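Attaching the record inline, Q. Sequence:
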Amino acid sequence: MKRIWVGCAVFVIGLAAAARVEAQGFGVRAGVSADPDQFYGGIDYETAELLERLRFRPNLEIGVGDDVTLTAVNFEFIYRIPIQKKPWSVYVGAGPALVIAHAHDDTDAGGGFNILLGLAHRGGLFTEIKVGAIDSPSFKFAVGYRFKP
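Structure, as predicted:
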């Protein structure tokens, strides 16, 4: 249980640090994952550019199904690639994760790593896929919306 509180504290500190940078906006997401097979939902916070096209996007995702509840605290950086003369941009990213699994009165925390690819519309709509390693789900697909500040 102590690990869970430490992980949550790290997430809050990450959000506080990100808040010092100009905000790009909060977002919500929902999707499916494989290994474990789950439906999940989450929230994220995306900063403005830290370097040209590079942004920090910590996020929290909670998945249910496959007899386990999985909480993932992800610390991801994304690199946006605009599509000329279109309101869309492609982004790639990666980052570490704290993964907390709860099943049958047993809670286990571990580390993970994600690599992601996404497509975002200037209006806020986005979709992304993630490939995970270590304790992260092996694959995730999500659709979400980013609210502008």
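The chain has a mean pLDDT of 87. The CA atoms of residues 23 and 47 lie 5 Å apart.

More tomorrow.
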